Amino acid sequence: MLELTDVSKSFGDTTVLRGITLALPNGETTVILGPSGSGKSTLLRTMNLLEVPESGRLDINGDSVTFGAQLTRRQISAIRRRSAMVFQGYNLFPHETVLDNVAMPPALNGKADRVTARARAVELLESVGMGHRLEEYPDNLSGGQQQRVAIARALAVEPDYLLFDEPTSALDPELEAEVIRVMVDLARERRSLVVVTHNIGFARRVADRIVFLADGGIGFDGAPEDFFASDSERIRRYLNVFDAV
Amino acid sequence: MTDFLSLWADSLPQLLLATVKVTIPLSIIAFVLALVVAVLATAMRLSGIRPLQWISRFYVWLFRGTPILVQLFIIFYGLPAAGITLSAWTSAILAFTLNTGAYAAETLRASVQSIPRGQLEAARTLNYTGWQTVRHVVAPQALRIALPPLGNDLIDLVKGTSLVMVITLADVFQVGRQIAATNFQPLALYAEVAVIYLAIFTVLSLLQSRLERVSNRYIRSSHA
């Protein structure tokens, strides 16, 4: 279970998250939707402590931190190893080959020795359809390929939760489709996914649960069927934008 | 013309000897030490610890803000007045190390800061320690970016060593001067000295472009 309790975060004078409370069980795919500026990315990044809120509490499968006081390195590391982030801009290490990008993190984390880490990396890369480009540098790959490698890299550190921060927003539709396919596979394997996306189709077809953020608060938290049938004015207005495209 | 060539042939052994005994070893020793100093200064500058940042900034400010010639004079002729007497060699190494180190520190700082934020976030989300992030993410990328400007710092250093005559060291330029003073052929001798510097520069440039090619191997050629 990943639990956020009364989490608040502001940047300067702007409050981005207002007392968010949320519980995400293991094995579910949660899609976080909301208009831009609603705090989706901040909420997601909080789960991995890339953003540290001012107040509230975060619990992930037995590790917890309370925000407000200075966090120790040990606390941060304990929480962080529970999840791994897939970024909009991929953020692969450009100076490492595809294989090293995936094999190095678990080796450096002490999760596996180098030989095991490499063997596992090959498996992961094959599972995302990148087994044929092991010795390539990221710069020579398409955006979709880079993102699939980034997913393999996130899987390599064996996180409980995989966090996706607009993973396909930088991609052309056909490249987006290949990344979405990998994510659908992960959802089918009952991995715990938390996905911030503008891909409404993914939310409709794959999500077990939709969290709708508006103005830093939770505007909806429930099943996709209920979300897409909602007569809440704010949700309708949000969804109409997509229908219009 | 034959005069010119025979002059060159006569003086070349002495000039090459001075090059090998002073100019090149001084450049190499000072550059290696300067890199160590620069890494330290950069680490301090980016440490986030205020007093260390101040020390680093002060150092760079002091040594970029004063001419190398003045630095040589202070160290060799000035410090004895304060009870610190250093040999000409030690003074030269110290001055060129600190001077080049200040420039190289600025180069390294700019390189580190030009690494995209996303790289650091990726390291964080993968739970890299601070040292692992430096060693496996920041340093390799910063070094690639820093290579061309560091090469320039080295070339400036080599040419700058021609100033060591003022503290009594007999580098290639000083030896050239001495020969010119005895044979009254300044044009021939100084041209010869210039050619020796050009030869060193050419070798360094070739070395640099080869290094850059290796370090750029992961950058797609279309925007390398």
UniProtKB/TrEMBL annotation, chain B:
This is L-cystine transport system permease protein YecS. GO terms for cellular component: ATP-binding cassette (ABC) transporter complex. The keyword Transmembrane helix applies. Keywords: Amino-acid transport, Cell membrane, Membrane, Transmembrane, Transmembrane helix, Transport. Belongs to the binding-protein-dependent transport system permease family. Residues 16-208 form the ABC transmembrane type-1 domain. It comes from Kocuria varians. The chain crosses the membrane at residues 22-46, 58-80, 86-105, 187-207. The gene is yecS_2. It is a multi-pass membrane protein. It comes from the Bacteria. NCBIfam families: HEQRo_perm_3TM. It is found in: Cell membrane. GO terms for biological process: amino acid transport. Its main location: membrane. Gene3D superfamilies: MetI-like. GO terms for molecular function: transmembrane transporter activity.
